Write a sequence for this structure.
């Protein structure tokens, strides 16, 4: 082999050995075999070789080309396999590491209280209806016998919305009574329904949130009396608090949509906070016989149909049942608070068997 050919062979082998990755390898390949590569140039120059040496040099160049092509391909295979080895080493998974603990969610106390209300009233034959957070002032006030000038409209610190529906002012509902109005308008009596949901009042301090939850209930049938109301609510409160002999007191009150109206108190100890013990009374819900004008507003003849209704605050009952002292964390989504007061998704809503 002539000197220039063996020099190229030596030089190429050294460059291939020095190529640390496929990019460097490709530069060597192009430098030798590419269009402007050294070997390509030698082949092009074959024509300038004196005729008597041309045959021998041509054969030598072809052998060199085969030899270099083979060593270039060998180097490529070696680099590829080294690269794969490096990836396998760096991406290896250590199956002996302990698993990361799975984060289990929990049921929010508000949701759990509403599930319990649904379970207890459900067992008494009540269904659940849901209305809309945005209502007209007719469904929130007018149908409930609260006329435009009535002070209750101001009491409720209503969020009014720009815009109207059916020529009626839009607002965020201040209670879930809209649900019962819709139920009476769309469903023939007898009716037994509860309406849990979000309600809104422009009121914000340590004990009031502008968004909170209420659960109202409605029963309409023939010959419904105060005795039905009292029996139903005493049973509910005893089941909800899980205290079979919980003292319950009905105290005369006033709501525009019920007549007569009664506030409902349970026995507790102001000093220890214990529900069912002590000699003090704590107001927990409002109730009454549905006002005849409300029945008439919903197309029901008050001489044929009577009923009772009640309303309670979900946050308030949740705080009392679980001894939660502050209203604000209910809406702060602090996972430490939720872990402390939340409920396992697998624990069913309590029905207090035997109460
Ligand atoms: C309270 C008092 C109450 C009602 C809500 C009602 C609904 C219709 C007709 C008559 Cl459609 N009444 N709801 C009745 C009495 C009391 O809520 O203190 N809630 C937190």
């Amino acid at each position: 082999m002539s000197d220039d050919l063996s020099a190229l062979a030596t030089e190429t082998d050294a460059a291939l050995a020095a190529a640390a990755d496929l990019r460097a390898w490709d530069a060597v390949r192009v430098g030798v075999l590419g269009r402007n590569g050294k070997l390509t140039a030698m082949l092009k120059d074959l024509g300038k070789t004196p005729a008597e040496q041309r045959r021998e040099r041509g054969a030598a160049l072809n052998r060199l080309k085969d030899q270099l092509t083979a060593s270039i391909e060998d180097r490529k295979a070696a680099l590829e396999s080294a690269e794969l080895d490096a990836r396998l080493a760096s991406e290896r998974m250590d199956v002996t590491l302990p698993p990361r603990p799975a984060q289990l969610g929990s049921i929010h106390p508000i949701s759990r209280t509403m599930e319990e209300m649904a379970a207890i009233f459900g067992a008494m034959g009540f269904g659940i209806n849901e209305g809309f957070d945005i209502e007209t002032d007719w469904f929130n006030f007018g149908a409930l016998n609260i006329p435009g000038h009535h002070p209750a409209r101001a009491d409720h610190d209503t969020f009014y919305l720009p815009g109207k529906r059916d020529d009626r002012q839009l607002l965020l509902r201040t209670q879930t009574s809209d649900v019962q109005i819709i139920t009476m308008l769309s469903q023939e009596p007898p009716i037994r329904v509860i309406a849990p949901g979000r309600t809104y009042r422009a009121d914000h301090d340590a004990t009031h949130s502008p968004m909170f939850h209420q659960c109202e209930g409605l029963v309409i049938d023939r010959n419904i009396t105060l005795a039905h109301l009292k029996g139903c609510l005493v049973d509910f409160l005893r089941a909800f608090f899980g205290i079979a002999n919980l003292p319950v007191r009905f105290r005369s009150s006033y709501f525009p949509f019920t007549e007569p109206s009664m506030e409902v108190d349970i026995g507790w100890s102001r000093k220890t906070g214990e529900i069912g013990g002590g000699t003090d009374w704590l107001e927990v819900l409002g109730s009454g016989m549905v006002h005849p004008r409300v029945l008439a507003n919903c197309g029901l003849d008050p001489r044929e149909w009577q009923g009772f209704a009640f309303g309670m605050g979900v946050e308030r009952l949740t705080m009392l049942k679980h001894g939660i002292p502050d209203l604000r964390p209910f809406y702060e989504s602090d996972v430490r608070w939720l872990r402390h007061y939340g409920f396992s998704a697998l624990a069913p809503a309590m029905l207090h068997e035997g109460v």
